[in-house]
Recover the amino acids of this structure.
């Protein structure tokens, strides 16, 4: 079976996340065993434990955002679990409003949109993910919104001339994912809020 070269980055993302999740889980299990033994405790153990928990949450989130997507369903409980874990260690609070599950490709686009919004909220805030009648809206709100207009233009105009850094890869991937799904992205910026629709 031939591999579509456009899918290679997503397959690589899936592979990296898949291979990293097991050793991080093992480290977490080891920390729990050390904690139960009572021999090791204190702020050092808390710092290591928090770091492992945050790394595990980010990898789970990145596996959806950057990994291979498809039409298979993700249940609401699975999505909320990923977001609940990532909420524990970040400056943003992610909220998932849809009551039903969604296809992995739709969740992937929502997570990529959330990453775009994260880059525009340097002081934190909330990112709410909504869906009504098949139309998705991802809203980022915070006390300060910092938008790089050239970068954000890339979401709605794939010919926009902007250099994408590794930290901004979501701005290249979201339009590609939307195009594959037959969707059009619109962005609605305001003073303390940005909405992405697709």
């Amino acid at each position: 079976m031939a591999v579509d070269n456009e899918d290679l980055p997503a397959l690589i993302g899936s592979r990296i996340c898949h291979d990293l999740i097991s050793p991080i889980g093992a480290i977490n299990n080891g920390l729990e065993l050390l904690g139960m033994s009572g021999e090791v405790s204190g702020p050092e153990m808390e710092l290591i434990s928090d770091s492992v928990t945050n790394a595990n949450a980010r990898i789970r989130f990145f596996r959806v955002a950057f990994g291979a997507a498809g039409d298979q369903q993700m249940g609401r409980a699975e999505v909320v679990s990923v977001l609940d874990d990532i909420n524990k260690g970040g400056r943003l609070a992610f909220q998932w409003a849809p009551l039903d599950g969604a296809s992995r490709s739709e969740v992937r686009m929502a997570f990529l949109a959330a990453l775009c919004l994260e880059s525009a909220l340097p002081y934190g805030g909330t990112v709410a993910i909504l869906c009504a009648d098949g139309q998705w809206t991802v809203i980022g709100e915070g006390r300060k919104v910092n938008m790089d207009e050239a970068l954000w233009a890339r979401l709605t105009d794939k010919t926009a001339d902007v250099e994408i850094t590794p930290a901004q890869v979501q701005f290249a991937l979201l339009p590609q994912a939307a195009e594959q799904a037959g969707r059009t992205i619109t962005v609605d910026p305001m003073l303390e809020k940005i909405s992405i629709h697709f």
The mean pLDDT is 87. The beta strands are 73-74, 92-96, 102-103, 125-132, 135-141, 186-189, 193-197.
